[in-house]
Design brief:
The complex is a heterodimer of chains A (159) and B (92). With 159 residues, chain A is mostly helical. Chain A contains eight helices and no strands. Chain A has one domain. Chain A is elongated and about 60 Å long. Chain B has 92 residues and is mostly helical. Chain B has four helices and no strands. The radius of gyration of chain B is 17 Å and the shape is flat. The chains are: A mainly alpha (159), B mainly alpha (92).
Chain lengths: 159, 92
């Protein structure tokens, strides 16, 4: 393990935490606020609007459930909505729908790229020993994105 | 994080719980009347999120500082949410 990799994997004397872990949680804290703010705004407008449930019923619970199991099918659902004229400008619900699922999708894409990069470097000889500690950091990010979807799914498909 | 705690976590069992809870929330939305269904699905979502945070994000074995990095933003979001209710929900 290189000196830099070892330093980020071991607990810092000043903080008592591995620097990589501290950095990842420092990154996730504002991410919690980004998605928390977006979900709060959705809930507030939903609580203050009439007719919101009617918009919600355009979303297929079955397709949303499948998306929850296989997130990559979501592009097919986007295409179906757009064909029906259900675009962000149609109403506040669809603005939230595309905004929240789009932002979440970008985070999923970022996680896939990060995991692919980790796999590529860890697959090299000695890669696991050198880069293995990054798996936990990628895992923290990936599961944060998972937690966000846990809330988006009932908000956009079930509620 | 304590290594023994992370490696000893029942990840597969938690995953099974998550799948069962996800299916239960879908069933609740299809079977129950609207108000109890919403209560059930958001409660189940909260349980699922806590399970992922505790076991897959290792918060179960983390110390106070890491807990605070996740809880302080949540508290700020709650303040934002409650503070805007009078303007957006009541005032419309």
């Amino acid at each position: 393990m290189s000196a830099a990799a070892q330093a980020s994997a071991e607990a810092s004397e000043s903080t008592g935490f591995p620097s990589a872990k501290l950095g990842m949680w420092w990154f996730l804290a504002p991410e919690i606020m980004v998605f928390g703010g977006l979900i709060s705004a959705y809930l507030l407008f939903r609580m203050g609007s009439v007719g919101w449930a009617g918009e919600l019923h355009h979303n297929s619970t079955l397709l949303g459930t499948v998306n929850t199991l296989v997130l990559l099918t979501s592009s097919a659902e986007y295409a179906a909505h757009i064909r029906e004229g259900l675009v962000p400008a149609k109403s506040l619900f669809w603005a939230f729908y595309f905004g929240m699922t789009g932002l979440h999708g970008l985070h999923v894409l970022g996680g896939i790229v990060a995991n692919a990069c980790l796999y590529a470097v860890a697959a090299r000889p000695g890669g696991v020993a050198r880069y293995g500690h990054r798996a936990e950091m990628n895992g923290l990010y990936w599961h944060f994105v998972d937690v966000v979807w846990i809330f988006l799914f009932p908000l956009l498909y079930l509620g | 994080m304590k290594e023994s705690g992370a490696h000893g976590s029942p990840y597969v069992l938690i995953w099974i719980y998550l799948v069962v809870l996800a299916l239960a929330s879908v069933a609740a939305s299809l079977v129950l009347p609207k108000a109890p269904a919403e209560l059930a699905i958001y409660f189940l979502a909260l349980v699922k999120a806590v399970l992922v945070a505790l076991y897959f994000m290792h918060l179960k074995v983390e110390r106070f500082f890491i807990h605070s990095l996740s809880l302080i933003p949540l508290a700020l979001v709650l303040v934002l949410f409650l503070g805007l209710i009078p303007d957006i929900v009541v005032g419309r």
